Give the backbone structure.
Amino acid sequence: MPMPLEPPKIGDDMLLARYGFLPQSTHYVRELLLKNDITIEQLINAAWLEDIRSRGRIRLVESILHKGGIDAVTNIDLSTDIGKMTEALSFLHAMLVVCASFDERLLARWIEGESSRADQLLGMDKENFLIVANSYLSGIREEEIPGSESIFWIPMSDFIELCPRISGDYWRLINRPVKDGWVSMTAGVGETSRQRTARLIKERIRENLIDICSQRMEKMDDEFAAQFSDSVERIIGLFSEQVHAEMPISAAKRTEWPPCFELAVSELNQGINVNHTGRVFLAAMSRSMGHSQEETLSFFSNAPDYNADTSSYQINQIYEREYTPHGCSALKTGARCPVQRGDNSLCDQDWMSHPLKYLRAKQRQRHNENIIES
Ligand code: SF4
């Protein structure tokens, strides 16, 4: 089931500016450009539009640095005309820069950031939720529950098309209540029904942004794209650095594990209770090390309060949301760093701020030793 051919009309400019990716926002943005006499050349160069470009750059950088999404909270005052213009045109500027890069990976990363931001915003937006949902789904029904949060129902055809792209038991049709062709998006995984539905809508937003950007890139000639070359160069440089930093850590040997990870694994294995920080760290670190959810779950199997269902659910949350493991200072504060100065020369390094750095350093060392021996 595709997106509605005729999305509901939206007359609220603040809403159109906040959700710049909405199909209805295209007309609003075009009008904004016309009314303010702004050409694309001005959007790229004019001094008076620097704030807009700068907001666009921030959105781009955030989507690159935080795969899990851009900060949904903006300090831009959308009740003012300038605020609305900044928000709407910064989205356009960021999209043009990404399209002008013709870099598929950068495009995918930006779209992931923007659609995650939309997911967060929408999940909190009681007032506008239905109209935005109706712009992306073929229908939505709200079941009001007295004294509690509403439960949303969506057409089975939308659910079936979108759910395979999301991991976790919640998203299997067999686990969803269904009635007369409608699927109940009950609260779950620590989220309200609205937040769960927003997660599903995120997939439609992503799909729609891919279509919009592909069309733009098809129409974009070299001369037009060259106007964005400075911004493209900067963002591609940053993106390459980030991709390098996120290179998957493969096949970490136990001797390479940082002491904090080793401690959490061995304490749980011995049936010692590990605090909340330690458990979240263990699961997130294990994910970053490339372990499967089943492998991560096995670390918890001797925990004194082990419950397979609860642990699987919590681990799934961490994997689905791509939690980043705690850094050294948080682990020290949470009493999860076992080393004292002098115990471990790598942990003593001034630059040692994160257990993933420890692991990378160990793996680099192994790699270099292998080269020397071969
Ligand atoms: S210094 Fe950092 S990497 Fe080393 S054990 Fe402590 S928390 Fe882990």
